[in-house]
Amino acid sequence: MHELFPEVSKVTSDVTGATPRGPWSDVSDDKWNDWRWQQQNRLRSAQDFDALGGHFELSDGERHAISATADAFRMGITPYYATLMDRSDPQCPVRQQAIPHPDELNPSPVDLRDPLGEERHMTVPGITHRYPDRVLFYVTHHCPVYCRHCTRKRKVSDPTSAAAKAQIATGLDYIRSHPEVRDVLVSGGDPMTLSDARLDTLLGAIRAIPHVEIIRLCTRNPVTLPQRFSDATIAMLKRHQPVLVHTHFNHPGECTPEAARCLRRLADGGLSVANQMVLLKGVNDDADVVRATNHWLLRQRCRPYYLFQADLAEGISHFRTTVAAGLDIIRALRGHTSGMAVPHYVIDGPGGGGKIPLVPEYIIEQDDERIVFRNWAGEIYEYPAR
Ligand SMILES: *Cc1c(COP(=O)(O)O)cnc(C)c1O
Ligand code: SF4
Fold it and tell me: Which member of 23, 114, 207, 338 has the lowest number of beta carbons within 10 Å of its beta carbon?
């Protein structure tokens, strides 16, 4: 059986075992699996790293960047996510997403403070209503790990910009008074930083609005803090169905047994999970990396949904690839692997244009009579033009 279906053995190995805990090997299972312990023991300074007995070596550049970015966009890394990082290599794809890089301090002239024009379309504080039938609702500015490529870094991690209870109330009022809103994306920050009790109240209030059909919960916790999803948490989310979870895996280094178990528990709990990957230079700008991540996600029943071109947020120019690089990745996937493993590649129109699909060119010629295509394998096909 295993010879014919080598994938079968892989499927079982996805969920077995555990990521080695490195400098935290003495921490009890109870603590390690407690999301509050993970939150409280986040790495927030170079000193926090140094206190781990030399397990992690920070480069001079990283040390400088950690202190120089502390005011603009502070560092925060859960012990769990830190165990996925290379101990010393600043080029490690997981480490690059979590430890500040000196290039963050060199803004590029094309950078924008509000790259997606979210504030331009912010109808009330905390709600971005850009598309006709759905809104983005920011319910917190906190996250377990502050991703260095975050598009909302202008707000996220800033303790003074916490989405206050009053703002959540205003957002709910806005949704209540806009019957065209049938889809609410609960985002932030990471909404799973709220307690189960607060989330339950919030989701319940959204669910009670008759015209809201679906709730989308946008959270990177399956990647940065999979311990967050206890059975009780999943049962709570289930009470507000239909709830669709959007998460954000970028690299196979994040595809651990802990994350696999988390995604499978969400799917078993009846929650539909999709992935929104961000294309990042030096992290995942490689078709093999994207394919491996997406194959793993599908094995956990998580559907690759979007591949985002890196936006123009300030201080992330070192992560930006060309659009051509993204199109090459899509071309290398389409037809070559399951269509389910091929995400929509999109660019958020700078300044608030919304998501614009980017599709490799398969039409090579057309006139009044015929359209000539190239298929995934490079062969030529024709179809009548009318
Ligand atoms: C991405 C986004 C959405 C959701 O877009 P979908 O294509 O429906 O997933 C909604 N509102 C805003 C402002 C967004 O940026
Ligand atoms: S989890 Fe999302 S909102 Fe939070 S820092 Fe990462 S990308 Fe930004």
Answer: 338
